[in-house]
Amino acid sequence: GQQLNQSPQSMFIQEGEDVSMNCTSSSIFNTWLWYKQDPGEGPVLLIALYKAGELTSNGRLTAQFGITRKDSFLNISASIPSDVGIYFCAGRGAGGGNKLTFGTGTQLKVEL
Amino acid sequence: DAMVIQNPRYQVTQFGKPVTLSCSQTLNHNVMYWYQQKSSQAPKLLFHYYDKDFNNEADTPDNFQSRRPNTSFCFLDIRSPGLGDAAMYLCATSRARSSYEQYFGPGTRLTVT
Q1: Cα(A37)–Cα(A53) distance, rounded to whole angstroms?
Q2: Which of A15, A4, A23, A45 is nearest to A108 (CA)?
Q3: How far apart are CA A103 and CA A88, in angstroms?
Q4: A40 interaction partners in chain B (CB closer than 8 Å)
Q5: How wide is the angle at C-alpha B106 spanned by C-alphas B34 and A10, nearest 5°?
Q6: What is the mean pLDDT of chain A?
Q7: Closest-CA residue in chain A for B87?
Q8: CB atoms B101 and A103 under 8 Å
Q9: What is the mean pLDDT of residues A41-52?
Q10: Disruptive mutation site among A100, A101, A104, A107 for chain B (greatest number of B CBs within 10 Å)
């Protein structure tokens, strides 16, 4: 089946630093979504991407739909303590209906 | 504010004792999903409804059942919980069959003793 690999698995950064993470697949996806999950809570949708090459921002967050349609990237600028959490990418493959395939997650920890 | 609500947030049940988790939504979305999420893992889809049309994942155990009596409510029934069923259960919605953005509730943490 389709799998999404996220990198890095975890990162520990200083407050104020920029953060980059990515999500890759061996197959093509038609939609990419990025979610953030705080401990004990449900995932919150951050950004949705629908076209190859699309670059979309939401405040300090910027995400891109890779040209090959097999990857996506999320950048966070000037990180703050509340950015701590697990970031999941999710993709909808061809013929997948509404079902999403979730990535393995990137855990972000911010040092003050 | 429109939202997805899950009750209770924490549920403790005994091994083998049936339990029901509930989800309601004020978004008037057509599609509702149930996911299971174990610690440090991605959410795993159990089943979903397009309106009243039920769609089960092939690897969802028979122990898990669902009901959607109306647009707003959806229930997850675990008929005989085992220790391995302890997890966070997440409900999500999307607007329509052609909509891919899913909106999640806060989850119910199930403990099996």
Answers
A1: 26
A2: A15
A3: 6
A4: 88, 107, 109
A5: 95
A6: 93
A7: A40
A8: no
A9: 96
A10: A100
